[in-house]
TrEMBL record:
It comes from Eiseniibacteriota bacterium. Residues 2-187 form the Flavoprotein domain. Coiled coil: none annotated. Keywords: Flavoprotein, FMN, Prenyltransferase, Transferase. The gene is ubiX. The lineage of its organism: Bacteria, Candidatus Eiseniibacteriota. Flavin prenyltransferase that catalyzes the synthesis of the prenylated FMN cofactor (prenyl-FMN) for 4-hydroxy-3-polyprenylbenzoic acid decarboxylase UbiD. The prenyltransferase is metal-independent and links a dimethylallyl moiety from dimethylallyl monophosphate (DMAP) to the flavin N5 and C6 atoms of FMN. Dimethylallyl phosphate binds at residues 166, 182. It is an enzyme of class 2 (transferase). GO terms for molecular function: flavin prenyltransferase activity. It catalyses: dimethylallyl phosphate + FMNH2 = prenylated FMNH2 + phosphate. This is Flavin prenyltransferase UbiX. It holds the Pfam family Flavoprotein. Gene3D superfamilies: Flavin prenyltransferase-like. Its EC number is 2.5.1.129. HAMAP family: ubiX_pad.
Protein backbone atom coordinates (compact mmCIF):
# COMPACT_ATOMS: atom_id res chain seq x y z
CA UNK A 1 0.00 0.00 0.00
CA UNK A 2 1.23 3.49 -0.85
CA UNK A 3 -0.05 6.73 0.66
CA UNK A 4 -1.10 9.56 -1.64
CA UNK A 5 -2.09 13.13 -0.93
CA UNK A 6 -5.17 14.36 -2.76
CA UNK A 7 -6.02 18.06 -2.66
CA UNK A 8 -9.33 19.28 -4.04
CA UNK A 9 -9.48 22.96 -4.98
CA UNK A 10 -12.08 25.20 -6.55
CA UNK A 11 -11.87 24.67 -10.30
CA UNK A 12 -14.94 23.07 -11.85
CA UNK A 13 -14.42 19.34 -12.29
CA UNK A 14 -15.44 17.63 -9.05
CA UNK A 15 -15.99 14.38 -10.98
CA UNK A 16 -12.21 14.08 -11.35
CA UNK A 17 -11.66 14.41 -7.60
CA UNK A 18 -14.44 11.96 -6.82
CA UNK A 19 -13.15 9.28 -9.18
CA UNK A 20 -9.54 9.85 -8.03
CA UNK A 21 -10.45 9.25 -4.40
CA UNK A 22 -12.54 6.23 -5.36
CA UNK A 23 -9.68 4.62 -7.32
CA UNK A 24 -7.16 5.17 -4.52
CA UNK A 25 -9.39 3.67 -1.84
CA UNK A 26 -10.73 0.80 -3.95
CA UNK A 27 -7.20 -0.33 -4.76
CA UNK A 28 -6.16 -0.38 -1.11
CA UNK A 29 -3.89 2.66 -1.09
CA UNK A 30 -3.74 5.19 1.72
CA UNK A 31 -5.25 8.65 1.30
CA UNK A 32 -4.37 11.97 2.89
CA UNK A 33 -7.15 14.35 1.92
CA UNK A 34 -7.20 18.16 1.98
CA UNK A 35 -10.05 20.33 0.71
CA UNK A 36 -9.87 24.04 0.09
CA UNK A 37 -12.99 26.00 0.98
CA UNK A 38 -13.94 26.28 -2.68
CA UNK A 39 -13.05 22.63 -3.25
CA UNK A 40 -15.56 21.66 -0.56
CA UNK A 41 -18.18 23.90 -2.17
CA UNK A 42 -17.42 22.37 -5.58
CA UNK A 43 -18.11 18.84 -4.33
CA UNK A 44 -21.45 19.93 -2.90
CA UNK A 45 -22.58 21.84 -5.98
CA UNK A 46 -21.40 19.50 -8.72
CA UNK A 47 -21.62 16.04 -7.15
CA UNK A 48 -24.02 16.44 -4.22
CA UNK A 49 -21.30 15.29 -1.82
CA UNK A 50 -20.51 16.59 1.68
CA UNK A 51 -17.84 19.25 1.85
CA UNK A 52 -16.44 18.00 5.15
CA UNK A 53 -13.64 15.48 4.51
CA UNK A 54 -14.72 12.73 6.89
CA UNK A 55 -18.33 12.87 5.75
CA UNK A 56 -17.15 13.02 2.14
CA UNK A 57 -15.23 9.75 2.51
CA UNK A 58 -18.17 8.12 4.29
CA UNK A 59 -20.47 9.21 1.45
CA UNK A 60 -18.11 7.91 -1.24
CA UNK A 61 -17.66 4.59 0.56
CA UNK A 62 -21.44 4.24 0.70
CA UNK A 63 -21.88 5.33 -2.94
CA UNK A 64 -19.27 2.86 -4.24
CA UNK A 65 -19.52 0.11 -1.59
CA UNK A 66 -15.91 0.53 -0.44
CA UNK A 67 -14.68 -0.96 2.85
CA UNK A 68 -11.81 0.96 4.41
CA UNK A 69 -8.93 -0.46 6.40
CA UNK A 70 -7.95 1.22 9.67
CA UNK A 71 -6.25 4.58 9.06
CA UNK A 72 -6.53 4.17 5.29
CA UNK A 73 -8.02 7.65 4.97
CA UNK A 74 -6.63 10.60 6.94
CA UNK A 75 -8.10 14.10 6.86
CA UNK A 76 -6.32 17.45 7.18
CA UNK A 77 -7.58 21.00 7.59
CA UNK A 78 -6.36 23.31 4.86
CA UNK A 79 -5.54 26.02 7.42
CA UNK A 80 -3.39 23.68 9.56
CA UNK A 81 0.18 24.44 8.51
CA UNK A 82 1.37 22.26 11.38
CA UNK A 83 -0.19 19.14 9.87
CA UNK A 84 2.11 16.21 9.01
CA UNK A 85 1.80 16.97 5.28
CA UNK A 86 3.69 20.23 5.85
CA UNK A 87 6.86 18.26 6.63
CA UNK A 88 9.10 16.39 4.23
CA UNK A 89 9.52 13.67 6.85
CA UNK A 90 5.91 12.54 6.37
CA UNK A 91 6.11 9.53 4.05
CA UNK A 92 3.86 9.77 1.01
CA UNK A 93 4.33 8.46 -2.52
CA UNK A 94 3.16 11.67 -4.17
CA UNK A 95 0.43 14.30 -4.37
CA UNK A 96 -2.37 15.10 -6.79
CA UNK A 97 -4.14 18.47 -6.93
CA UNK A 98 -7.41 17.63 -8.67
CA UNK A 99 -8.99 19.77 -9.89
CA UNK A 100 -6.36 22.50 -9.57
CA UNK A 101 -7.65 26.05 -9.54
CA UNK A 102 -5.45 28.68 -11.14
CA UNK A 103 -5.33 30.42 -7.74
CA UNK A 104 -3.72 27.30 -6.31
CA UNK A 105 -1.43 26.90 -9.33
CA UNK A 106 -0.27 30.49 -8.88
CA UNK A 107 0.29 30.07 -5.14
CA UNK A 108 2.39 26.92 -5.58
CA UNK A 109 4.36 28.43 -8.46
CA UNK A 110 5.10 31.50 -6.32
CA UNK A 111 6.16 29.48 -3.27
CA UNK A 112 3.66 31.19 -0.97
CA UNK A 113 2.69 28.27 1.26
CA UNK A 114 -0.17 30.09 2.98
CA UNK A 115 -2.41 27.01 3.02
CA UNK A 116 -1.76 23.33 3.63
CA UNK A 117 -2.51 22.52 -0.02
CA UNK A 118 0.17 24.97 -1.18
CA UNK A 119 2.67 23.92 1.49
CA UNK A 120 2.20 20.19 0.90
CA UNK A 121 2.68 20.69 -2.83
CA UNK A 122 5.93 22.56 -2.26
CA UNK A 123 7.10 19.84 0.13
CA UNK A 124 6.54 17.22 -2.57
CA UNK A 125 8.57 19.30 -5.01
CA UNK A 126 11.47 19.82 -2.62
CA UNK A 127 11.51 16.12 -1.70
CA UNK A 128 11.47 15.21 -5.42
CA UNK A 129 8.23 13.28 -5.02
CA UNK A 130 5.63 13.29 -7.80
CA UNK A 131 3.35 16.31 -7.79
CA UNK A 132 0.58 16.07 -10.37
CA UNK A 133 -1.49 19.17 -11.05
CA UNK A 134 -4.78 18.73 -12.93
CA UNK A 135 -5.97 22.14 -14.17
CA UNK A 136 -9.36 22.37 -15.83
CA UNK A 137 -9.59 26.09 -16.57
CA UNK A 138 -9.95 27.10 -20.21
CA UNK A 139 -8.85 29.10 -22.10
CA UNK A 140 -5.43 29.91 -20.61
CA UNK A 141 -4.14 33.46 -20.43
CA UNK A 142 -0.43 34.22 -20.32
CA UNK A 143 -0.32 34.31 -16.51
CA UNK A 144 -1.86 30.83 -16.30
CA UNK A 145 0.59 29.44 -18.84
CA UNK A 146 3.60 31.01 -17.16
CA UNK A 147 2.58 29.62 -13.75
CA UNK A 148 2.05 26.15 -15.21
CA UNK A 149 5.43 26.34 -16.92
CA UNK A 150 7.06 27.30 -13.61
CA UNK A 151 5.51 24.23 -11.99
CA UNK A 152 6.68 22.05 -14.86
CA UNK A 153 10.21 23.43 -14.61
CA UNK A 154 10.19 22.82 -10.84
CA UNK A 155 9.42 19.13 -11.40
CA UNK A 156 5.62 18.96 -11.29
CA UNK A 157 3.59 17.06 -13.88
CA UNK A 158 0.92 19.25 -15.46
CA UNK A 159 -1.88 16.92 -16.54
CA UNK A 160 -4.82 18.96 -17.85
CA UNK A 161 -8.33 17.59 -17.45
CA UNK A 162 -8.64 16.91 -21.17
CA UNK A 163 -10.15 13.42 -21.55
CA UNK A 164 -9.88 11.44 -24.77
CA UNK A 165 -12.86 10.02 -26.59
CA UNK A 166 -11.43 7.01 -28.42
CA UNK A 167 -12.78 4.80 -25.62
CA UNK A 168 -16.32 5.96 -26.54
CA UNK A 169 -17.32 7.27 -23.09
CA UNK A 170 -20.97 6.82 -22.18
CA UNK A 171 -21.08 8.58 -18.81
CA UNK A 172 -19.55 11.46 -16.91
CA UNK A 173 -17.80 8.83 -14.78
CA UNK A 174 -16.13 7.41 -17.89
CA UNK A 175 -14.63 10.83 -18.63
CA UNK A 176 -13.44 11.17 -15.03
CA UNK A 177 -11.83 7.74 -15.12
CA UNK A 178 -9.86 8.60 -18.26
CA UNK A 179 -8.02 11.34 -16.38
CA UNK A 180 -7.66 9.25 -13.22
CA UNK A 181 -6.04 6.46 -15.24
CA UNK A 182 -3.50 8.93 -16.65
CA UNK A 183 -2.73 10.21 -13.14
CA UNK A 184 -2.26 6.68 -11.78
CA UNK A 185 0.07 5.88 -14.68
CA UNK A 186 2.27 8.85 -13.77
CA UNK A 187 2.39 7.62 -10.17
CA UNK A 188 3.24 4.08 -11.31
CA UNK A 189 0.07 2.92 -9.57
CA UNK A 190 -1.99 1.06 -12.15
CA UNK A 191 -5.44 0.18 -10.81
CA UNK A 192 -6.25 -3.46 -10.16
CA UNK A 193 -8.39 -3.34 -13.28
CA UNK A 194 -8.00 -0.96 -16.19
CA UNK A 195 -10.23 2.04 -15.73
CA UNK A 196 -10.33 2.71 -19.46
CA UNK A 197 -9.10 0.77 -22.49
CA UNK A 198 -5.66 1.79 -23.64
CA UNK A 199 -5.26 3.16 -27.14
CA UNK A 200 -4.95 0.36 -29.67
CA UNK A 201 -4.81 1.48 -33.31
CA UNK A 202 -5.67 -2.09 -34.37
CA UNK A 203 -8.99 -2.11 -32.54
Amino acid sequence: MKRLVVAVTGASGAIYAERMIKAILENGHGLDLVLSNYGARLLKEERDLPGEPRRLIDALCERYKISLADDQAVFHNNSDLGAPLASGSYPVAGMVVVPASMKTVGAIASGLGDTLVDRAAMVNLKERRPLIVVPRETPYNRIFMENLLRLHDAGAIVLPAAPGFYQKPKTLEDLGDFIVARVLDRLDLPPSQDLVPRWDPKS
